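During the second year of the project, the team shifted from modelling isolated chains to modelling whole assemblies. The rationale, set out in the original proposal, was that interfaces cannot be judged from single-chain predictions alone. As a representative example for this report, we include one of the complexes processed in the last quarter. Its constituent sequences, exactly as entered into the pipeline, are reproduced here:
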Amino acid sequence: MADIATHDTDHATDHGHHSSTGLSNNKLAMWLFLGSECLLFGGLISTYMLYRGRVQNGPHPAQIYDIPFTSVSSFVLLMSSLTMVLAVSSAHRKDDSKTNLWLTITALLGATFVGGQVYEFTTFYREGLGFTTSLFGSSFYSLTGFHGVHVSIGVIMLLSLMGIIKKNKITGDKAEVVELIGLYWHFVDVVWIVIFTLVYLIPS
Amino acid sequence: MTTVTETHEDAQEHGMSDAGYIKIAIILALITALEVSTYYVDFGPLFMPSLLIMMVVKFVMVVSYFMHLKFDSKIFSFLFYTGLGLALFVYFAALATFKFFIA
Amino acid sequence: MSTNELTLTPGNALDVAKGKLVVAPTQSLGAVRRPVNTTGWREWLFTVDHKKLGIMYGTVAFVFFIIGGVEALFIRLQLALPDGRILSADKYNQMFTMHATTMIFLFAMPMAAAFANYFLPLQIGARDVAFPRLNALSFWLFLTGGLILNASWFLGGAADGGWFMYAPNSGPVFSPSNGVDFWILGLQIAGIASLIGSINLIVTVLNMRAPGMTLMKMPVFTWMILVVQFLLVFSLPVITVALVLLMFQRSYGATFFDVSQGADPLLWQHLFWIFGHPEVYVLILPAFGIISEVLPTFSRKPLFGYPFVVFSGASIGLVGFGVWAHHMFASGLGPVSVAVFSMATMAIAIPTGVKIFNWILTMWGGKIWYSAAMKFAIGLVILFTIGGLSGVTHAVAPSDTQQTDTYYIVAHFHYVLFGGMVFGLFSGFYYWWPKVFGKMLNEKLGSWNFWFMVIGMNLTFGPMHILGLQGQPRRMYVWTEARGGEGLFNFGFWNMVSSIGSFVLAVGVLFFIINVIKTTRNPERAPLDPWDARTLEWITTSPPKVHNFDRIPVVHHLDEFFHRKYVEDEVTHTMKQVATGEELVRAEEAAADADIHMPGPSYWPLLLSIGMGVLGMGVIYGTPIMVVGGLIVLFSSYGWVLEPSVPDAIDFDTPSTDGHTKEIAPLG
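Output from the structure prediction step:
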């Protein structure tokens, strides 16, 4: 739903008025949404933690995880956070071309991460871990799949944003829209920081 | 959380220069390298705690600097950390009833 | 570009305040035209007006209240006599599952949302909510969810696993029809609706208060709604996870709650109740808020201990996140967990008790006006206290393990939910009806309505305490003569009493419906301030104009409207009336703002909700339908994003001339 929430620049009747807190409605809504998302990912992570050892007849996590590969894709996502923050910073300076450049790089890095995940999933599948193979498989794919969907939505939002900026059809404060998508993007990165440690680096 | 600075009305409202962001990113990259090294080098009893600490440090750094929470209104921090805190509380408690932390 | 156009700038308020022009809409917008000034049915379908949406929420929720009520009557008919034959075992399972689901998710929550939508902006002196289009989206998604849930009746049978849908009853073995799938998808979509609504209302309260309205000058109803929205925003994602896992289990072959595959079915129980317990407060706190408005008004006294009522409401909310496992005492959690959750549960009785005392002391020494609204409010205080006391017996784990899954539990939660929540909502109907529709509900019929409901409810749910302690299991679809028992503890007798009571209750509700019809036909207009009320929603016309307030009120007091009518006499220290409500409203009209800009209607909330519904159906009926739904969602999301936040400037009346600003109200 994030793509809807972030773009909603309705200020009701408040055009030109101060808000009670002096803060932007959109940013308040985004932070609330992210606070709420903590409980969503928390639930999926807890489910995985509970079930990671229940491999039934399928492969064990340690047998299939490719730590070097995942480390590289984690690094890619981490660096996309840097490029995103640089895009936000350029947008605040009203530097359109730089903003576009950094957004493009961010989207590319994000797409690379998603591509890596698709590769990882197919490899795991070939090694015998299907979605229904075991509780470990189901909870692993649910958690990382949910995260992957979040990254994909982020990439779509970035691409749409670039298109909208280029056509100059943005509804609302451009820098703020970039910032809102940035917040979402960083949050997705932060979730991956947790997943990388809890799921991949700490064996069951 | 550290102190929340007043929001300024100039361009520095968002806290950091691009060079600052790059510095943060380098630190994050170094921590990640250290995390990955636990896979190759035996950290002994420090393995688990060090990984968890590094995770938390990375998390807080991204949230504080890249997401500006350190420089922004503390209302944003309240909204986000309330969600995070509740998530930690309820899920720790739920996992504890499964004797997750005893095994 | 002159400063006149500043008010049309949909940019950051701070940028505007600093005099930095962002973009004017006519220059940058126009990818998708926005509908303007629609009339007739379009006025309702595409509206983003919080008042219209509030009425729509209320109407739909009331229809679901009737549906849920009829389901309850079927249940009581089945149990009235031994060997009941009204329903089959299977239909009975569907009936109680859908009764609970409908009442909680399709009546109680949306009815509270109706009140919140309508009155929260009015009470804080705002012209609308922070995100009017998202508000419309919430409503349409809720309706979509409700329709999906109830469509299951006609498409192979409704959900039949009980409203908390424990494993293994939720699995395909015990629930082979698509009922549970409809249930999952309906709740998921209704959940998204509530999540969006809660974010919207929190931002509205934080950011759109009238100048001078600090948090501690907000009406208690607004406060309770704020607490409820925080509960929703942090508890709904948990049920979302649970529902997603169950969907993966039922539709895609995962085994998250299947013991035979090594899973822990208790995982579902934890996830469900981590959401489910805050949900209990989501249901009751709006009613608490309503009667905290009604009791002072009809006692002619300010609310006793306003900060205590506010903070006890907030602490109920917070502690509400730490007591969920008391629903699971019988599941073998282990002594430590049981002790911890038992203590936490007892602790939550304290702030609740504080509220009860505050309400009693509000009435103490007041000049009480026994209007219908007041009767329902007093009814709540008494009936909720009874339910609260039986609730404390559940906090004691050894006693709870005896009561679990008996009618004693059913008795308890109907006292708190029907005696508490429903009475609060009816109190709100009578109190605010003249505000919303400009006509007074008939007080005499209101009295009949109240007495039938209070007698009916005690006849229905009172005997369930006895039935439960006698060991009648909850969800038992039939009982035999042999189990009847004798004397005071005669199963048969109390079941019959309870069934008769349910029809008395139904007659009570019928009186309300008759009252509504009669009132609608009655041409007589209500006075502007019929109750001598205290809060800001009364400082405007009834019903309020589209823009709510002719001039945004500046707030100096808690109970601002009261303090504009009454001033304390310096000598005698009594309150002297200096103005009538009517005069105040006329004064506001005379000083109306010249330029008021309201957001235009929009097609996208409706279209997006339809897309979500189709997407959900795709989970049951196959991927092609899912793809169609996904495309509608994608298309309407883009339409949404590219839609100007206001219609073209030419569609407005004259633009602002003074760039008027609101004071920044400090938090706290």
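The two ends of chain A are 33 Å apart (CA to CA). Residues 2-201 of chain A form a domain with the Four Helix Bundle (Hemerythrin (Met), subunit A) fold (CATH 1.20.120.80).
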